[in-house]
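Dear Dr. H.,

I hope your travels went smoothly. While you were away I took the liberty of generating a structure for the chain from your last submission, since the lab meeting agenda had it listed for discussion. I wanted you to have the full record in hand beforehand rather than looking at slides cold. The sequence, exactly as received, is reproduced here:
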Amino acid sequence: MTTTQPPTDERRISYLPVPDASGVPEGVSKLWAKAEANMGFVPNVFRAQAVNGEQFQAWWNYFNLLLNKEGYLSNAERELVAVVVSGVNRCLYCAVSHGAALRHFDGDPQKADAVAVNWRHATLTERERVLCEYAEKLTLRPAEVTEADLQPLRGVGLDDHQIMELVQVIAMFNMTNRVSSALGFQPNAEYYAQSR
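The corresponding predicted structure, in token form, is as follows:
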């Protein structure tokens, strides 16, 4: 695989060398091109994780299914949970990039910014508050989660499919936060201005 070491200034997006387009599988280069066409840029997480191209594609397929396809929770709810988990884990990349997505789907930039720092200071519905509480507990204290923790979720109208999806989104972001933080992934500059 061909890699190029990024410069040691603000343009560095990962602690590891990032492959160029000639050093990734065809599926990865197609995904990069699709992102460029749809978003106007290639997310740095796509570039940085392509060090292991097949593993990146497997991650993307599951991530895409959970976050970008029609699901049981709304797009805004899934992004809300993503930002809560990422904020709790202090994952810069995911808090910034999914903060942009939350601003887009929810339409409230102030709320998205508050959620990224401390969701308790955001103006939330009762359902959103319950989602945030559950996401925080499962992130910080998974060994303490019991069946009783599902009752508040059911109390705000979540069914079994929505609960399963909620748990999967929380788990996906805990994993992705750890990969991003461990390898120093830096968010694209474009995310900071989106939906403001």
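Two observations you may find useful: Confidence is low (pLDDT under 50) at residues 5-9. The chain has two domains: 16-67, 75-193.

With kind regards,
E. W.
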